[in-house]
Fold:
Amino acid sequence: MAHKINNELKKTCVRCHRTLPLSRFNKNNYSKDGHSSYCAECNREYQREYAARRRAETEIEITNKIALRNLTDEQLYEELERRGYRGRLYKVDALGTAFNPDAVEAPESVEMK
Ligand SMILES: [Zn+2]
Structure:
């Protein structure tokens, strides 16, 4: 929250803990005093870090997506479970009919890939 020091409105950055003039903080309509809780400098750094993290995550996602194609059904199932997917997986036959490959009465006419 902004406060007056020597007749100047100042605010302490929650990231670097420096007390700086309010003008060093970006405007933020969601904040009570109308200014961001990070100083402009920290905000810039944070944006940069965030962008770098997102870039890295996206690269991992792309790598994973490609890798999933080479997995066997068994590996794919384990991988999905590891990623937090829950529930039963169903195979879909050529006609688009879903069936559970584990079920005893899996249609015999359907070829499993
Ligand atoms: Zn700061």
In short: Residues 11 and 19 are 5 Å apart (CA to CA). Residues 13, 15-16, 18, 38-39, 41-42 surround zinc ion (CB under 6 Å).
